[in-house]
Amino acid sequence: MREIDEExxxxxxxxxxxxxxxxxxxxxxxxxxxxxxxxxxxSGPDFFNAKxxxxxxxxxxxxxxxxxxxxxxxxxxDDDPSYDxxxxxxxxHCNGEIQQNTQNxxxxxxxxxxxxxxxxxxxxxxxxxxxNFQPNISETESKIFLNELLSTRFEEKLKETNRIFLRTGKNxxxxxxxxxxxxxxxxxxxxxxxxxxxxxxxxxxxRYRTDFVxxxxxxxxxxxxxxxxxDEKERKILEKEFxxxxxxxxxxxxxxxxxxxxxxxxxxxxxxxxxxxxVLIHLQxxxxxxxxxxxxxxxxxxxxxxxxxxxxxxxxxxLIINSIIxxxxxxxxxxxxxxTYDQLIQLIKSCRFEQNHxxxxxxxxxxxxxxxxxxxxxxxxxxxxxxxxxxxxxxxSILKEETIVYH
Length: 407
Fold this sequence. Notes:
47% helix, elongated
């Protein structure tokens, strides 16, 4: 695996993010960068109209960037005359002389030692690239940054909700039902639970909403969990009921092994979650008819916090964050005038900050509620874990402190 990729080197060059100081080519000639040039995203050299000085002599022209100098050959530049008129060949590592550079008196600048420390850290697989830095970010800047990240997360979740909405034939109630059932799977079983919701559509489940035995037999039967039930008497009753309903509605069960049943936290096993889901459908049918009414923590608690359901506070907050708010944001984005963005923000702020192995990295961002921890999780998953520091405000602030922009 390469230490760094070519696109990252191009970004560093374009933004002028090399360490301040004097640069020397592999031939020990002094290089000054007056203008990095204009980035070219088509065929040909990577940068046009750059301006540099080599031992005090000013040159204007094109620049090519590679991870290794021999990539020149792998990319076929030795047979391309458009690379004959370069003024500089920039590489992360010089692993061999390029005849075309030598013949045209093009200097090779190896920039590995000139990269800022945070860029060097992005080459390592574990931890954050900025883990050894203390970002200079104020509380106000932190709040603005987290709000932007949260908004972006809402938009990402909206894509998933729209996908489900289109798959259901633009059925709003069915969309909410699938989002809800999916998150009863507790992440490890979210896909199998979504498959269960596809096999058992909301219309079918509400048809039997007054008969708890039928609802539970359908959920456990389709999940393939009837043999896992410890209560033999109840199991036989549900097996008999499911046998009848399976043939009546031509239902299929999940293939063995799709649903994970081992190594769950107490209260999160699929047996418990499917039972709770059956209770919810049986007792809270109004939830599925008007899910957009769940726009406050009081209404959600009244619906999901009942003694019959026995849902933990952690799990209710998980449903708020991953099912209810994405659905409400979907309704808001499609023009529902009964919902406001501030309502969604207040709703997610009513949930507690999530402490985990990802959010622990961001102590300098002053997290207070689930709005902040969700923003941090989005930051970690979409930027930090992929080492996209230059797309991050924190990474950029560190780079600016470490480097000097060309002038």
